[in-house]
Amino acid sequence: MRGLTGAGPDRALGSTQAVIAVGAALAALALFVVACGSGGTGARDEGPAHASAVAGAVASPSPSPAERYRRVDPVALIKSDPEVSGAVKRELKPCNGDEYPVDVSYGNLTDGPVDDVVVNVLTCADAVGLGSYVYRKDDGSFRNVFKSEESPVYAEIDQGVLSVTRQFYEKGDPISSPSGEIVTPYRWAEGRFAPGKSTRREYSKSAGGVPTPAPDS
Prior knowledge:
β9 and β10 form a beta hairpin. The N terminus and C terminus are likely disordered. Helices cover 23% and strands 32% of the residues. It is globular, with a radius of gyration of 35 Å.
């Protein structure tokens, strides 16, 4: 009949399993008493084991964005830079009060010790770019590693690449309506910026004379 077993191997196995289970319970109870007596909270005091602790090595943290950032005075930087032309320096005057027509951005372009500085000098009246410059920190000071004074020009950081836009004019174009622009990417290699393939983009003139990007062909 089901539910009844003889005194064969199955019954002996069940008795052995019961003894093992009781032994394991007693061992766990003993460990619990020792932990409580020592005033600790067991494994939770230490937290999970990290890979660096298991391997016996501690990884060096990368510099944080705050550590890489070094704010500069862009006006003083431009005025003291012998690489900047006299014409650009003469045009660098306050527009309103003590506000200068400069545009500054920070980012990693040259893998330097801190973020590089991109400075654009503009005109007050219509914000036309007079010159674009990149400064890299070397030996404790910022050094000019790029300049473009082919006005109108504007430089910016685009996904870790220096992107320089130069607008061009055809005969008869007013200053407010260029015929298009040429965008050139620059990448840092062997201690200098090397230009990549330029993209030419022509504007279509709207009825109001405002340039708009021409549709891609």
